[in-house]
Amino acid sequence: MSSRRFIGPAIFFFGIFQTFSINKLFRTTSDHQFGDHEQNNSLLQLSDATKQGPIQTAVSAWGGHWEYIDSVHSPYTFSHEVCNKTFFHQDDCTKTASLCPSNLMNWQYITADGRPYPKFNVAGFRSVMRNKSIVFVGDSTARQQVQALTWTLGHADFKWEIVQPVARAKDCVTQRRCMTDTIGNITICHQPMTTMATQNYKEGDFTFEFTQESRDTSCLLSDEFTHQLTGYDLVFVQGIAWWQGLPRRLNSTTSPSEWILELVPTVYKDAMGKLLSNLSAKTKTVLVLGQVGTACLGKTEPEEFVPDNIPSKYGWSLAPKMWNALLKYLDEEEFDLQIVDARNPVMQSVHAHPEPDCLHFCMNSAAVNIYLDMYWNEVFRTMLQLND
User: Fold this and answer.
1) Are 317 and 311 in contact (CB under 8 A)?
2) What angle do CA 302, 117, 279 make, to 5 degrees?
3) Any idea which fold 3-387 has?
4) 17, 185, 252, 274: most buried, per Cβ within 10 A?
5) CA torsion 59→123→175→244, rounded to 10°?
């Protein structure tokens, strides 16, 4: 078996399993080589303290890299026909079929100690989630993960059931889609989440009027939605992309884009903090740190992820400040919350996007499936160990 290796230092983060409440979870950037210059998009990383607990520590994705493998067992074979029968969004089918190379599953993530990162275990997933329910709350990047999960479970012909929760506002995206894995009797859902805000913000003559935001899903913070979402046995939360477009969408004389640009990390931290607090108090909740847009044009192999190189297009370069603001807040609180940090492997995967779309992944790629691998390794396998 031949392979070619992409060596990525990947020194910025690692995903580690956390069993209990989040406390003293992160090292500060001053402990590392990053420094404190405000122009440096250095990132907080999870602390070794998260390894504490009675359960075996998950395999770390920190320090890993992608290698190309000539022969690899794929979780599924992408089919345009199957995609058209089961899709969330038609773009995932048409872009993958027309814009993506066929060998993107041949990339395998290798850990720092030279071992292949553990793959998603279908039998183990069904064992631990049998007769249970799971909902992914997030934007279209989370949607793609749910789609990949259904195919990995072997579902090739089904229709999504549309669940219409109680709407809090005219523009609130509330339409939830669900399907059932009949073998395990597992309900799998995706709840759209775009932007949210806990308040209107004021500073001098400037006012951040979130009521003008057409992509508002602040209804997710309401008691009604909290009750609905905490009815699931497991909730994954991931979303950052829509907030990054706020400076452009809300730009006006009373809320200039330059001011909103500085405010977005606070808005994101406040809203996500409230959502995570609401959910984690009543059900098992997982925060996922994942992809943002990248410079993908003309890329055919993975590349080292450097936070300072995140493009400013669509506000993507705001991501490090937004992540850090939320993580600092979580470090100060004691939520019963787990964090899966997938940023290193997914942000290395610049080769796996359907150009010119440099945010979403090709559905026939190992990049979108590394999320599932990490969920198995850091969430479901841990739950299985606890059950045993």
Assistant:
1) yes
2) 95
3) Rossmann fold (3.40.50)
4) 17
5) 20
CB of 347 within 8 A of CB of 309? no
Please name the residues in contact with 68: beta carbons below 8 A apart, sequence gap of 6 or more.
3, 4, 5, 6, 106, 107, 108, 301
Taking only the tens place, the pLDDT of each residue in 267-283 is: 999 999 999 999 999 99
C-alpha atoms less than 13 angstroms from C-alpha of 181 in its C-beta half-sphere: 25
Phi-psi map region of 185: left, alpha, beta (phi>0 left; psi -120 to 50 alpha): left
3-class state of residue 298 by DSSP: coil
Asked whether the bond before 356 is cis by omega within 30 degrees of 0, the reply is yes
Contacts for 228 with CB less than 8 Å, ≥ 6 apart: 165, 166
pLDDT tens digits, one per residue of 285-328: 999 999 999 999 999 999 999 999 999 999 999 999 999 999 99
d(C-alpha 255, C-alpha 259), whole Å:
7
Tens of pLDDT, residues 259-271: 999 999 999 999 9
C-alpha–C-alpha distance, residues 241 and 195, integer Å: 9
Neighbours of 46 (CB within 10 A): 23
Q: CA-CA-CA-CA torsion for 211, 217, 218, 221, nearest 10 degrees?
A: 170
Pairing of strands 45-46, 133-138: unpaired
List, in sequence order, the alpha helices (H) in the chain: 80-86, 90-99, 122-129, 140-152, 223-229, 246-249, 257-280, 319-332, 343-348, 366-375, 381-387
Supply the Cα-derived Rg of the chain in whole angstroms. 20
Q: What are 59's two structure tokens?
A: 């395999």
Residues counted in the chain: 388
pTM: 0.88
Place of tokens 């479970």: 153
What are the residues facing 286 on neighbouring strands? 236, 338
Q: How far apart are CA 261 and CA 259, in angstroms?
A: 5
Q: Say which residues have a Cβ less than 8 Å from residue 86's Cβ, sequence separation at least 6.
A: 147, 150, 151, 155, 156, 157, 158, 159, 160
